[in-house]
Amino acid sequence: MPEQAPRRAVHVVAGLLTDGGRICVTRRRAGVHQGGKWEFPGGKLEAAEEPLTGLRRELHEELGIDVRAARPFIKLRHAYADIDVLLDVWEIVSYRGAPRGREAQELRWAEIEHLDPREFPEADRPVLRRLQLPPLYVISDVRRFGADGFVARLERALAAGARLIQLREPHMARNAFCGYARRLAGLCRGFGARLLVNADPAWVPECGAAGVHLNSRRLMALCARPLDPPCWIGASCHDESELAHAQSLALDFVVLGPVQPTASHPASPTLGWERFAMLCSGTALPVYAIGGMGAADFPRARAAGAHGLAMISGVWSRDDLETVVRTFAAADLSVARER
Fold first, then answer.
1. Separation CA 2–CA 93 (nearest Å)
2. Which residues are CB-neighbours of 269 under 8 A, at least 6 positions away?
3. Domain check: are 247 and 307 in the same one?
4. Position 322 in a domain
5. Secondary structure (3-state) at 49
6. Which of 3, 154, 243, 301 has the fewest Cβ atoms within 10 angstroms?
7. Helices 147-160 & 174-190, crossing angle to 10 degrees?
């Protein structure tokens, strides 16, 4: 058999320029790879070029800006049918100039919240979700507070800035669960937040939810993503095989743990921060740390590669839950632009 030609591989750098809740995106020209799709500005590195040097060059050539400071955001690999891409994405912390399409490309400032993954190249989709995901993922505790008591606490958390909620109440029968989910989903939508249900994905329409959270059993039973965008899908993972399967299904994020002992299961095995960091480094999906988490663990989780924290009692059991939630709301992506 004739030898196959080696696959082409390219190292691409891209920059995230934000302005409040908006981000700068450009449209790829027709006739090129992924032509017509929106993307984050950037381009291919030249031979032996350092990523930050290449990023500064590309953004000056494309947008006419001078990058003053940037920091790594995410690095991931993606295999297209005809090419392998190493996508190296950076947050632009400060820059000079006003972005404009210097190469006749279409440019717009898009609302981050409304970015549609279907309009972007597949390699960019994990970047989109990481941008849209808040740093705090709050999991329900209806059994402790009762249906009405939990609604009151949820409303306080939403008013303080909580934007991603999981309804996880395995003791509820389907009818009761779906009815309660519709109540919470309506409340969440009023604050611009999303409710995901920890249930069979088929229940999502009946619940009026924004998506589903898969426990590890449901995750490993699937052979394809169960819901298409704009529905969000998260999953609970505990080891390499579950993380790899979640990534193969193109899910939006995972929750990984337990990292530390929890009040409810103090003797259960834990990952610890060192193993948690190793597992994070092996996946391109955004990861939430779970298990004994408090707001004070957020910097350490970020340093270990987490996108944020998933919490239950660390939020709901606190009398000052608004203070806890605001700690995370203040950590959202922000950019200081020099004029």
1. 50
2. none
3. yes
4. yes
5. coil
6. 3
7. 30
> How many independent structural domains does the chain possess?
2
* Rounded Cα distance, 239 and 257, in Å: 9
- Residues 111 and 146 reside in one and the same domain: no
- The C-alpha angle 12, 240, 126, rounded to 5 degrees, equals 35
47: containing domain? 8-123
Report which of 267, 272, 256, 245 is spatially closest to residue 308, judged by C-alpha positions: 256
Q: Are the beta carbons of 309 and 162 closer than 8 angstroms?
A: no
Evaluate whether residue 185 is within a structural domain. yes
Q: Do 159 and 204 fall within a single domain?
A: yes
Q: φ and ψ at 8, to 5 degrees? A: -75, 135
Same domain assignment for residues 111 and 150? no
Furthest-apart CA atoms within the chain: distance in Å: 70
Quickly count: other Cβ atoms within 10 Å of residue 110's Cβ: 15
Q: For residue 53, which amino acid is it? A: T
Please check whether residue 336 lies inside any domain of the structure.
no
Nearest residue to 212 via CA among 221, 225, 200: 200
Q: Is residue 338 part of a domain?
A: no
Confidence of residue 332 (pLDDT cuts 50, 70, 90): low
Of 233-237, 251-255, 284-288, the least confident: 284-288
Please return the burial class of 324, using the count of CB atoms within 10 Å of its CB with bins 0-12, 13-18 and 19+: buried
The tokens describing 81, both together, are: 């049918």
Spatial distance between the Cα atoms of 236 and 244, rounded to a whole number of angstroms: 12
Name the residue with tokens 């009761």. Answer: 176
